[in-house]
Amino acid sequence: MKRIFFLGPKPPPVSGYANIVNILATRLLAFGNKVEYVSTVPTYLNALYPGRLWVLARMFYLLGLIVFVAFKIIPKSLIYLNLNGGMGQFFDLGVVVFARLLRRELIIHHNSYSYINSRSKLSGWIFQLAGDASVHIVNCDCMAKALVDRYALNSSVVVISNAAILSKSRESSTSKFVSRFAGFSQRKSLVVGFMGYYNKEKGVDLFAEVIKAAKVNGLAISGVAVGPVREELFYEELMENFSEFVEFCGPRYGKEKDAFFDSIDLLMFPSRYKSEAEPLIIHDALAKGVPVVATELGCVGEILSQFEGCHTFKEVEFHKHAIGVIVAKSNQSDAEKMRERKILVSAYSKLANKQTEKFENFIASL
After folding, report:
1. Among residues 38, 45, 40, 103, which one has the least CA distance to residue 77?
2. pLDDT at 178
3. Which listed site, 211, 270, 275, 352, has its alpha carbon 20 to 30 Å from 64?
């Protein structure tokens, strides 16, 4: 059993990053470790998210938290730091300083491309102070290479996909596949879905533009978007320009989220978010046998290139190529769609099992 001082965001507010960190903490506990999970966000102030007040509140929270960490870190044998992006890395820098002064083992888990796309001086200081004895966990091979090249790292870098961390929290078995899609053949049109924040970074406007263009060109498709509103004015513009082409719904969680994936034939993920690494929504779709067409960001291309029926394109080419994918999907028979989904579920299950074994071996070695 290992004593682990675990630092990362807890939901609420709900985000892919917070969700994966929360599940990771649970998985570490399941292996018999003694985990003290300290949230790096003020969850009790989640009503302020997003906005300037939230940013200000989090800044003061992290200032107080670093004092708390200074006292709590002493008896812990291992520090597991889920690295922040942006100004939150000043807090991370303080944690790394304490870790080195107290000679504690240090694991740094990366879930963002914000400091990999372009070099950050602050990130460089963190990695240099962490030293060669630290262990870095990344989501994919391309992320590992980019991190090592960008910062000339000499420390150990371990590639563990989020598929491994998520594998025990969802059903990805093919045994219930047919029953989940009992009404599959009764669909009258291709259903294309979007799930994510309603903001420009997540590309819901690009999704809506593609759906509109497809419908205007006579394709028999339906577009449905689900997610929380993050920018009111942006959402009002969406409704004004695209409400007759796309059904905009609120967020879906739990069984409602499962039902959403069961109801769509294709997931569109046209993100522009430059920090995108290995989004959970991609794994949610693949585990349900839903093909994905996405913009080429972070680890997304590396993930989707492994699966039949999935595609990634650069943002400037996305509109044209996404229409092409929709046309091809529209021409598939129900039997072909079902076959593709069964193959996708099986292939993703193999990936998840392989990554889970790798993750479990890593945890056992701590």
Report:
1. 103
2. 41
3. 275
Q: Are strands 78-82 and 3-8 parallel, antiparallel or unpaired?
A: parallel
Beta bridge partners of 6: 37, 80
Instruction: Output the DSSP codes for 343-365.
Output: HHHHHHHHHHHHHHHHHHHHHHT
E strand residue ranges, the chain = 3-8, 34-39, 78-82, 105-109, 135-138, 156-159, 190-195, 221-226, 246-249, 266-269, 292-295, 311-313
Position 247 scores a pLDDT of 96
Residue 286's nearest CA partner among 273, 276, 300 is: 300
| Structure confidence at residue 170 (pLDDT) | 53
8 Å CB contact between 266 and 192: yes
Work out the end-to-end distance of the chain between its first and last CA atoms, rounded to an integer number of angstroms: 9
Contact 136, 108 (CB under 8 A): yes
What does pTM read for this prediction? 0.91
111-125 burial, b if ≥16 CB within 10 A, otherwise e? bbbbbbeeebebbeb
**Locate tokens 């609120």: which residue?**
250
The count of residues in the chain is 366
Cα separation, 265 vs 20, in Å, equals: 25
Neighbouring C-alpha atoms within 13 Å toward the C-beta of 86: 6
- Cα separation values, 1 from 29, 31, 77, 80, 334, Å: 10, 8, 11, 15, 51
Taking the chain (366 residues) in runs of 10, the rounded mean pLDDT of each run is 92 88 92 93 89 91 92 83 93 95 94 94 97 96 96 95 78 42 57 95 96 94 93 93 95 90 96 94 94 97 95 96 95 90 94 93 88
Chain centre to alpha carbon of residue 242: 26
**Coil, strand or helix at 270:** coil
317 phi, psi to nearest 5 deg: -105, 0
